[in-house]
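If it is no trouble, can you show me the amino acids of a protein and the C-alpha cells describing how it folds?
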Amino acid sequence: MHPFFALGEALRARGHEVAVYTGAEYERSVREQGFAFFPFHRALEEVVAQRVYSPDSIGANWHRPWKVPRLLKEFMVDSMPAQIGDLNRVYAVWRPDVVASDPALLAPYMVQYERTGVPVALLSYVLGCQIPGPDIPPVGLGLPLPKTRWQAMSNRLTGKVMDLFLSDFRTSVDRIRVRYGLKPLGRSIVEAARRLPLYLVTSCPELDYPRTDLPETVHYVGACFWYPRQHTPPPWLETLPSDPPCVYVNEGTIHVAAPFLLRAAREGLAKAPIQVVLTTGTHRSMADLGLAPLPDNFLADQWIDHDLLLPKMSAMVCTGGPGTVLSALRNGVPMVVVATEWDHPENAQRMAEAGVALRLERRHCTAQGLRAAVERVLGDPSFRHNAERISRALARQGGPGRAAELLERLPAAAQQRSFTHHHGTGSAGASAPAS
C-alpha cells in the first residue's frame, strides 16, 4: 500500500482527485490521507486472509513449489470476478480517468482495460521489470544472470517447466476473459503487461538486470516511500551509538511462518561486537514469537520508521521485501538477504548482482551462517560503496512525483494512440488523471 499512498499524495499535490480500492483494514489509513475509499468485496477479503495472512498462505508454502500454482490461482485468478464486480461499481460511481494498479490484482489490466477503455498503468513494487525477455532468466525464481551457454540453456529449460506448472493459471484467466467478451491472451500474464500504456517500476535500471528489449512504456521511477503519520519512535533510538556498528534485523510485514531469521539472529549475533535492532512487525510481538529475553546487545520494537532508523545502521538483515530493501538502499545501507517468498528471490538476486547485498540461502541461515554473512558485509567496504551508488541512482529517477507526471500523460496518449489500432477492440481516453 505504501507506494500507492506515496503516488496518491503526489497526484493530489498536482491538483488531482484520488480514490483507493483496497482491503477494509486500510480504510482508516486511506481516509486519513483524504482519499476516497472503495473496499474489497467480502469474497476477496476472505481469499486475501487465507492466501496472504494465514498459516496456509502462499508465502508459508513457497518452499513447496508443487502447491504454489494452485494457491496463486485461488488468490489472483479465482478472485477476478469479485474484483470486476467491485470495479464496475467504482467506475460507475467515481468514474476514474486513469487507474494505477497493483500487479497482483489482475482484473484492472486483464479485463477492465479492454472493456472500459480507461487507461491502466501497473505500479510494480518489485525491484526489476517483470516482463520476460531473452536476456534474463525466467521470472519468479530469482535465478542469476546466465554467464555461460549451459546456464542460458538451463534457464530456457526452467522456463518451459514453469510454463507447464502455470498452464492452468493462464487457461483460467483466458476463460474469465472470454466470459466477459474478450479474446484469450495467447501469452503469459507477465508478458501481457507489454500491451499496457504504462508500466512503472519503483526502482532504477542500475538495480535491475540489463535490458535491451523493454517497450518504451516501461519507466523506472525510483522508490515511492510513504510512512504512517504520528508514529512515536522508541526513546532509545536517539541514543544509539555509532560504535559499535548497528545492524537492523527484520522479516517484513507479511511474514506469517516461523520466525527463522529472527531466531538465527538472536542466537548468532548475541554477544557479537555489534548493536542489533530487531523489529517483529505490527502483526506480531516478542511474546508471540518466543524470543524473549533478548541478549544484552539487542533492542527491539514492533515497527520503527525507516527514515529515522536506517541512517543509523551499518547493515541490515532481511528477507527481501521491496519496501524494506529500497528503504535501506535509499540510505546507502548494505544487506544480508535471506529470500523467502513472493518476489523476495527476484529482489535478492538483483541486489546480489548489483553488489549491494550478500544473498544467503535459507538452508544456510543458521546462527553461525548468519553471523559470518553479517561480518562479511560489515568488513567488505564494497557493499557499502555499491549501496551508496544505488542510493544516488534511485534519487535520480524522481520518485512518486515522476510517476504522477507520467500518469498525467496517459489520457492524451490514449486518445492519440487508439486501443483499436493496437489491440483490435475498444478505445481509451479521458481527461484528468486519478489513481
